[in-house]
Design the sequence.
């Protein structure tokens, strides 16, 4: 696991996320969000979970980003005023980050290097999904169906 | 220096806090959803990092949790954005500070 790749991906991801959180125009924020999601997918590849990285690209970059862009198109583009940014939020986020950083850096057992690991194949993931995780898989299918029906009902034109 | 678990946890904590910043400091509902998505991605990154650096396990629990969390996050994004569109039809705005009809 090379540290140069890690550094590049970390900078890319955090820059994209910060841009998504602070850019005033919604469409710019949505496109920066795509950069951040691609960075997270690159992290998954770096960690050896290629399947999760691919799913991340398909679901987030392919579906969720398109959904967000469509919602931006369907709702009127409103420029947020300068007063739209609240500094209390920034203070709270910084405080949470400081607390998390303190907890992570004060735990010595976390500073382990990655050991050798057996490659995670799509075949083994599929086998696990069909054996140990078959009930969670069914529940996820049910949740996705319910979300599909619910989203359709929510955006359907109301009868007058 | 090769990256350790600590460096991954620091990056994911930073990503989580940027998402929290977006969810707390923005008034537009779409920005709040974007922040929630970022926080979910940070949590998934933690799961996969712990799977990679922990003892090898069969089945790979961290990876499976990340896969299921991505599926649930997709459902959450679809319903959330549908709610934003429904709210926009009623109020003609996506600014959450103007959705104050229940305010006493």
Sequence:
């Amino acid at each position: 696991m090379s540290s140069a790749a890690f550094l590049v991906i970390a900078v890319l991801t955090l820059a994209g996320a910060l841009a998504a959180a602070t850019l005033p125009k919604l469409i710019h924020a949505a496109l920066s969000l795509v950069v951040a999601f691609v960075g997270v997918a690159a992290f998954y590849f770096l960690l050896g979970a290629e399947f999760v990285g691919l799913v991340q690209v398909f679901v987030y970059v392919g579906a969720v980003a398109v959904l967000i862009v469509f919602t931006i198109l369907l709702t009127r583009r409103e420029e947020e005023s300068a007063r739209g940014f609240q500094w209390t939020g920034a203070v709270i986020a910084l405080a949470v980050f400081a607390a998390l950083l303190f907890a992570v850096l004060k735990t010595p057992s976390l500073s382990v290097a990655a050991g050798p690991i057996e490659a995670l194949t799509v075949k083994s993931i599929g086998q696990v999904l069909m054996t140990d995780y078959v009930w969670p898989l069914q529940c996820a299918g049910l949740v996705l169906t319910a979300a599909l029906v619910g989203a359709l009902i929510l955006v359907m034109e109301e009868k007058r | 220096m090769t990256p350790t678990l600590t460096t991954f946890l620091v990056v994911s904590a930073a990503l989580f806090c940027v998402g929290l910043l977006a969810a707390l400091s923005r008034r537009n509902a779409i920005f709040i959803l974007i922040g929630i998505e970022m926080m979910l991605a940070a949590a998934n990154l933690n799961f996969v990092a712990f799977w990679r650096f922990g003892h090898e396990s069969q089945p790979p629990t961290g990876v499976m949790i990340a896969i299921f969390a991505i599926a649930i996050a997709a459902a959450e994004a679809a319903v959330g954005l549908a709610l934003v569109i429904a709210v926009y039809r009623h109020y003609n705005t996506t600014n959450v500070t103007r959705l104050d009809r229940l305010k006493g």
In short: Helices of chain A lie at 3-22, 26-47, 50-74, 87-105, 122-130, 134-155. Chain A has two domains: 1-78, 121-160. The mean pLDDT of chain A is 87.
